[in-house]
Amino acid sequence: MRDPIAAIRDRGAPVARRRWARHVRHVLRGQAQVDFLPSAVTGAVFSVALCAAGWAYGLYGLLGTATGTATAHLLGVDRERIAAGLEGFNACLVAVGSAVFLGPGHLSTVLLAVGGSAVTTVVTAAAARVLGTWRLPTLTLPFCLVASALTTGAPGLARVWHQGAAPAALPQAGGPPSGLSFTGLWHGLFASISQIFFMPQWYVGALFLAGLFAASRTAGAMACLGSLTGTGTAWALGVPAAQLASGAAGYNAVLVAMALCGVFLPAGRRTLAYALAGAATATALTPALTALTAPSGGHAFTWPFVLTTLAFLAAAPAFPRLTGRRGATP
After folding, report:
1. Is residue 161 predicted with pLDDT exceeding 90?
2. How far is Cα 58 from Cα 96, in angstroms, rounded to an integer?
3. Distance (Å, whole) CA 72 – CA 33
4. What are 290-299's pLDDT values in tens digits?
5. pLDDT value, residue 323
6. How far apart are alpha carbons 271 and 177 in whole angstroms?
7. CA gap 73, 67 in Å, rounded
8. How many other C-beta atoms lie within 10 A of the C-beta of residue 74?
9. Which of 24, 169, 199, 230 could form a disulfide with 283 if both were Cys (CB 3.0 to 4.6 A apart)?
């Protein structure tokens, strides 16, 4: 006679495996949602890209996304949001940002990454309730709020701050712009995509771009156009060549371009022009926010993207040729 306990265990094993597989898909989709894509395949490519920059960054990305997703489960967040990865992408950025700015090899960084990722779920719900009044998305606003709090407070905490150096001083007047080589240009075009995850390596950006095209040609194309617009605008404004080559000047433009053409507004010729105008605006806004946050390290994060995209989306209903509606919303 077959052991009844073994029979129950055999029946339960496939269910457990399905649950784990489902959770893994939700986590990977959370990684991909940093770039607005609910694709587990893209999320897996993004994880590989982070590991190419440093295995620790790949682990922090998965840790943050998994923590944010699990916290949303525990708090009873709508399952459709969790399944689409919408509860993981802000937490992913918080965890990776903690590793980049506080150092990945410290226990305090791990604890802050986990705690910050969990708190991000609460901040996301609060931001959604506030912005939902105007039917606006939260974007990466929860990440910006949590990351800004962490980096502002960290230098004053001896058990958290391991960098030794004090935060950046107030910015000085810029000198004449330096020449940008062809190599620096194409490095910057790829790095503008990877800098969304704080990674300055061009080859990491190429991997991220491959993940985008694997899910959506429109998303991949808009990322390329956003990077080109951001880099070109920054060069025209006289941003130093080193910042252009590292992608630090163009990553907000990538997110704005994707958001305003194909994600929150339909893809078309008019929305393309609108999106590229937004991308240029975010690029011009970046130095201002960098200077504003200089006393705490000069980390603009994705604030330029958030502020620009919310402004352009709030204005969009007044432009019926963008939305396809005949009447404008007052």
Report:
1. no
2. 8
3. 15
4. 988 887 777 8
5. 73
6. 32
7. 10
8. 10
9. 230
